[in-house]
Design brief:
The chain is mainly alpha-helical. 65% of the residues lie in helices and 10% in strands.
Length: 196
């Protein structure tokens, strides 16, 4: 019973985290800070702001690339916000490689949660499509419902993959820094036996 209660508490915590992450909005800039893009809670572009001096900074040809860069930046900030919601408090993490491995473990949990969400959305959409007798502009609504479910499922899987990828990259960097730290060794390098 205690295992069931703990699992139920963890599920509630994940549900609360998912609700908090779902409300995350984000804004991003291009490298020249000429274009600012805002995303809503669904990850859709809701505002694009262009600085008055954009022509001088970017030129006419560079505006489209700047908008795309700002969208990418906003999307990454949104993913980081999701990661912060699901991640542990940094102050509680050990300063060694174990903290990095805990980050990867959390990323794996987030990925599987996203995959579960995707499957539930996809199955629900397919069932809804099969049960639907509605029409949209005289066409059956079922393909639209199924396509919407597939898009939601794809978004959940992509978000989970990106969060896992970001956590793995961060852990890789931290672990490589730890391996490259030779200060504790005699003469500042790994012992010969460790290098063989």
């Amino acid at each position: 019973m205690s295992s069931w209660a703990r699992l139920h508490e963890e599920g509630d915590a994940l549900t609360r985290a998912a609700g908090s992450a779902a409300r995350a909005t984000a804004a991003g800039w291009d490298d020249s800070e000429s274009v600012r893009v805002a995303l809503d809670t669904e990850g859709r572009v809701v505002a694009v702001t262009v600085a008055a001096a954009w022509r001088r900074r970017l030129g006419v040809e560079g505006l489209s690339d700047a908008v795309l860069a700002a969208v990418r930046d906003a999307a990454m900030r949104r993913l980081e916000a999701w990661g912060e919601v699901y991640g542990d408090d940094d102050r509680d993490r050990p300063a060694d490689g174990a903290g990095s491995l805990n980050d990867v473990a959390t990323g794996i949990i987030i990925f599987w949660t996203g995959l579960g969400t995707a499957l539930v959305a996809l199955v629900g959409g397919i069932i809804g499509a099969l049960a639907s007798s509605a029409t949209i502009f005289g066409l059956p609504a079922a393909p639209f419902i199924a396509a919407g479910a597939a898009l939601v499922a794809s978004g959940a899987i992509i978000t989970g993959c990106e969060l896992l990828k970001a956590r793995c990259a961060s852990a890789n960097t931290t672990l490589r820094q730890k391996l490259a730290d030779n200060a504790a060794f005699h003469h500042g390098h790994w012992p010969p036996a460790a290098q063989a």
